[in-house]
Amino acid sequence: MDEKNKKNQTIELIKNRKTIRTYDPKPLTQDEIDAIVQGAMRAPTAGNMMFYSIIQVTDQKLKDRLVVTCDNQPHIAKAPLVLLFLADMQRWWDYF
């Protein structure tokens, strides 16, 4: 790898990313939620169309149901916030 790529912070973040599936039980602040959602909305999409909707789930009963819906992943129920990303292909058809 050349010297330029060694110092590229984006590449380093990608290489060093990890999944953490244990959560602090305290609820997120609205500012924290807004920052996470805004970050997700800045991810690149074809034509900047954002062919998805983001649904915020904090209700424990709904999170418990998502555990089963999402291939029995128990960590979902323990998260203080679950963001569901739903593909919305109607936006594609409406635009083009």
From TrEMBL:
SUPFAM superfamilies for this protein: FMN-dependent nitroreductase-like (SSF55469)
A Gene Ontology molecular function term of the record = oxidoreductase activity
The family database entries (InterPro entries) matched by this protein are listed as: Flavin_OxRdtase_Frp, Nitroreductase, Nitroreductase-like
**Keywords from the named record:** Flavoprotein, FMN, Oxidoreductase
Signal peptide boundaries: none
Q: Which residues form the Nitroreductase domain?
A: 14-88
Keyword Manganese annotated: no
The similarity comment for this entry is:
Belongs to the flavin oxidoreductase frp family.
Q: Which PANTHER family match?
A: OXYGEN-INSENSITIVE NADPH NITROREDUCTASE
Protein name, please? Nitroreductase domain-containing protein
Organism phylogeny: unclassified sequences, metagenomes, ecological metagenomes
